[in-house]
Amino acid sequence: MRSPELAARKRTKEPGRRAGQLSRLEIQRAALRIVDVAGLAELTVRRLAQSLHVTPMAIYRYFPNKAALEATLVDLVVSDSAVTAHDTPELRLWLLHTFARMRHALCRHPGIMPLLGTASHSSGNALAIVEQVLGRMRSHGIGSEDATRLFYRATAFTLGSVVMMDSASLAHFVKPRPVQDELRRQQRHGFAALPKTEFPQVVAASAALADCYSGKRFEQELLGVIDDTLQAAPHS
Amino acid sequence: MRSPELAARKRTKEPGRRAGQLSRLEIQRAALRIVDVAGLAELTVRRLAQSLHVTPMAIYRYFPNKAALEATLVDLVVSDSAVTAHDTPELRLWLLHTFARMRHALCRHPGIMPLLGTASHSSGNALAIVEQVLGRMRSHGIGSEDATRLFYRATAFTLGSVVMMDSASLAHFVKPRPVQDELRRQQRHGFAALPKTEFPQVVAASAALADCYSGKRFEQELLGVIDDTLQAAPHS
DNA sequence: AGTATGTGTATACGTTGTATACTACCGTGC
DNA sequence: GCACGGTAGTATACAACGTATACACATACT
Fold first, then answer.
1. Which pLDDT belongs to residue A15?
2. Of residues B2 and A87, which shows the higher confidence score?
3. Cβ of A60 < 7 Å from strand C?
4. A65: pLDDT confidence band, cut at 50, 70 and 90?
5. pLDDT mean over B201-216
6. pLDDT of residue B10
């Protein structure tokens, strides 16, 4: 059964590749698109294949199984955050921008967040950023020990900040997750609506807590972490 | 078909409850047990029911669907970390212990890590800890603004540190995840085995990077973050 | 005793991931 | 030009999954 819509698959010729052929990257991008608009749970092999105008089993020419596909998605998102080579001379601002871009990239694809907790999704892209960050710090005269410490603190803070946005979400199961300020406002109301007798501190600090979901607040705190850590380290 | 093993369900009488009856908590604990020994992917309603000597559909008397069950698991783990009421007088050490216990609880159940990235799994337990931490800080004379800042930094660092352990894992798909020192050793070898020309910094710092997966290193850095943050805040 | 309420069962259905076997095409030898 | 072997995609099938629906039985209340 070669249905008409299957036959309608695009036939754009690429050099060194047969016409209209699939590729790992093409599949990954289609998968990410599905995750973005419908959530990770809606990413099925069948739906993915359909979006590529292809039979489900075609996917398995490029990935041994669904888990292997999913494992590559985090790296794909991370690579998005690394494309622009920005050259802020000052180290602390360069670090700020680098980690802020990583956070931004992850926040734009909230659906892949569960995959962060899955072992072994790293590949070249994530490692390349680690290498780049470490190299930059060393070239600014920071010692190996301090560079690792700063890398650890900044990375953990960034990832944790992103996880907090998802995991602390009091609000019910909303399917298309609200973004940025929408989330912040929602969270503030959530915190503020708690029983004041049981959670007095949380209610009192509801506005400040909800502010943690803002990008500005993240960058402010990250810069604080960077400066605090650099302060104890000798560097040029 | 009332099979013999189903009939063998335990009949321990509990007050205010019928003999051998299920409960939300009992189901959650069984689910967590499965996740611990076999991974989140192996948690199926059928297997869960079997481990409770019950029909699959019995689960649905207590949870509307599988996702709702999973959503409670993070909170269950977190509540484990809060059971012991420790009373370290010094604030910085109290905070250190509190967050270290949280990390420890999460590390003991690596299978639930993907659920951290799932929206809205919070319920009373996580919030109670937030309340407790904020209250403790306030009672030590720390202002609302600084308390929120410290809470944000410490929480993000802790969660991020835990996520890093999973996500940075270079090593292949191992099913029963290695713990603690085993993971650290494995990671060091992983980092060190990278092509030195492509990732010179990572290879050079392989030992230090792998050290980030140690509990001792985590506590050391967390204390650094706490102290750095407290330093800028006036308190008693 | 009779009835309502709630807990677990039996059965069934649509979907999922993927093993297996196939078909058609392309680039390479002649 | 043309057979041909490898590769990309297809067709079919199946076990396992989540869960809707209808039922049976035990307990608690009258």
1. 41
2. A87
3. yes
4. very high
5. 91
6. 47
Residue B43: exposure state from Cβ atoms within 10 A (0-12, 13-18, ≥19) = buried
Task: Identify which of A144, A160, A229 has the shortest CB distance to residue B160.
Answer: A160
* Rounded-to-integer distance, Cα A47 and Cα A54, Å: 10
Nearest nucleotide, CA A46 to C1': C16
Cα distance from N-terminal residue to C-terminal residue, chain B: 68
Q: Which of B102, B216, B233, B118 is nearest to B162 (CA)?
A: B102
Q: Note the residue count of chain A.
A: 236
In angstroms, the CA B188 to CA B204 distance is: 11
DSSP state of B229: H
Do residue A117 and residue B120 have CB atoms under 8 angstroms apart?
Answer: no
Residue A121: predicted pLDDT: 57
The CATH class that applies to domain A4-63 reads mainly alpha
In this predicted model, what pLDDT tens digit does every residue of A160-209 receive, in sequence order?
A: 999 998 765 543 333 445 556 677 777 787 788 889 999 999 999 999 99
**B65 — pLDDT class (breaks 50, 70, 90):** very high
Give the nearest chain A residue to B228 (CA atoms). Answer: A228
- Based on C-alpha coordinates, what's the Rg of chain B? 21
CA distance linking residue B75 with residue B146, whole number of Å: 26
The residues near A171 (Cβ < 8 Å, ≥ 6 apart) are A186, A187, A190, B119, B120
- Can you give the pLDDT at residue A187? 79
Instruction: Determine the straight-line distance between the first and last CA of chain A, rounded to whole angstroms.
Output: 68
Structure tokens given for B217: 């290193």
Give the three-state DSSP class for A16.
coil
CATH superfamily of A86-231: Tetracycline Repressor, domain 2 (1.10.357.10)
CA–CA dist A155, B203 (Å, integer): 18
Q: Which two tokens stand for residue B46?
A: 């059928």
B64-231: CATH topology: Tetracycline Repressor; domain 2 (1.10.357)
Alpha helices in B63-179 (DSSP H): 66-82, 91-107, 113-116, 124-139, 144-167
How distant is C1' of D12 from CA of B69, in Å?
36
Q: How far apart are CA B6 and CA A190, in angstroms?
A: 43
Q: What is the pLDDT of residues B94-123, one digit of tens each?
A: 999 999 999 999 999 989 999 987 765 566
Map out the domains of chain B as residue ranges.
64-231
Query: Burial of A181 by CB count in 10 Å (0-12 exposed, 13-18 middle, 19+ buried)?
Result: exposed
For B130, nearest residue in chain A (alpha carbons)? A202
